[in-house]
Amino acid sequence: MKEVYAVLTLAYRDLLKLLRDPTRLISELMFPLLFIVILGGSLQSSFGTGTKFDYITYIFTGVFAQTLFQSAAMGVISLIDDRENDFSQEVFVSPISRYTIILGKIVGETLVAMTQALGILVFGFLAGVRFSFGQLIGLGWSGVVTCLFGAAFGVIILSNLNNRRTADQVFPYIMLPQFFLAGVFNPIQSLPWYLDFLSRISPMRYAVDLTRDIFYLGRTDYANAILQRPAYNLALMTVAFLVFLFIGTFLFVRKEQNR
Amino acid sequence: MDGISFSVAAGEFFTLLGPNGAGKTTTISILTTTLNPTSGVARIAGYDIRRAASAVRQNIGIIFQQPSLDFNLTAEENVRFHAVLYGLYPFRPTFSTMPRAYKQQVSELAALLGLEKDMGQAVKKFSGGMRRKLEIIRSLLHKPGVLFLDEPTAGLDPVSRRTLWEYLRQVRRERGTTIFLTTHYLDEAEEADQTCIINHGRIVAQGSPESVKAQLTETYLLIDAEDRNKLRDELRRLKVEFTEAASFKISLRGSDVQRIIKAIETPLSLVKTHDPSLEDAYLEIIKES
To answer: Which residues of B are less than 8 Å from A85 in CB distance?
Structure first.
């Protein structure tokens, strides 16, 4: 029971820290806003009208998944500087399992990312995306799955990093290519073989596709927007989630005590 | 770290001294289980740091060199999260929903340090001294047998430093908590039961502050007279060993000041005794190692 309380405490702390820091809240919503309103809006008015392709919705769903995936991953990676900072030093010397710390962080960063999801929904609405109640529920569900998946991805990255500086240097190279390979903004139905290969090994791709599976369900442009069926994406994400989580946590715990 | 070995009895006040980079924080990290030793054995409160890391953690409190508080959270939230992580209370999202025992413990501790009105405030509004106090309150919440303090007063003003020490003395008196301190303020180590000086990862002096001082520094008497020749002759006649420089230096090892002064008849222009501080001993020891 103690470990359950610890997970709740760690997660709650992450959420409180976000809510008490309005500057951070605003800055983290800046990119989704730019992507959806400016990028989506400009693509829509330039290309969308002729091709009848709904760029705004496409980018909105892509950015929704991308933001949650990235936020959760970055949140977990922040454990790397946490151990030298603030309350986290306390966390690392408290009598709780290291696995509990990782789990608490994953749950916490999921909560943090889901708070941002609310903001993204608002931007989508302002940009002209309309959603039914069923779609909202669907986005909530795929959002949580995406966060957990992104957090597990964060764990495996974290387990291979030594300090904040490396993290900052490496992170753009891990994330930025995925923006394009996962089809956040750009349709990736047909790619040259090498890009297709890179796309298939980009974890973000599956989170983005799952989100579109849900959101486009029953729409006429379903087939144009999605890559794979939800069951396929979900199965792949589950396997990858477990692999990332177990190997990542194992490596992290080992490295953490043998610095 | 190289071949360091020491033991600290329950309730003792132990200080680990050494220059920056000597290995103090590494030693603390190993003893508090955040760093695995490459070899060697250590036990805290009877528990092996490798095989029973969790039991060790449950039995220690730590004040880190860097502040370990979340500045955006309130003082009470910082304390509450600690209490839950140590399994003292179940998790509740607000203060008012916490068990009564917790509320009582917190308000008692806050009253002790005069922070009653500030517990609901964000820690970022606290002064450096208040933050340190809060960290100490928090670290004692789970009643640890051993309290580790890694340069706890670095950066504090003299008043905060003094109040902090008064509180720590009180804690020792009332709870019999073992204190393990690293510091650069040597005066803080003067009242320790045992002190250990390390340099380049090795122990270079160990024992009570008195014995460390006695080992490496001397207590001496400085005297001088208008008529130096007369004084010199007299000292020779009295068979008092001395060295002559800017003044006459007489080592006091084994002889007492009063007897010497009483025996000298030459009018003296200077009488000064030098009783070394731990700082003198420390500087000497570090220079030699």
So the answer is: 66
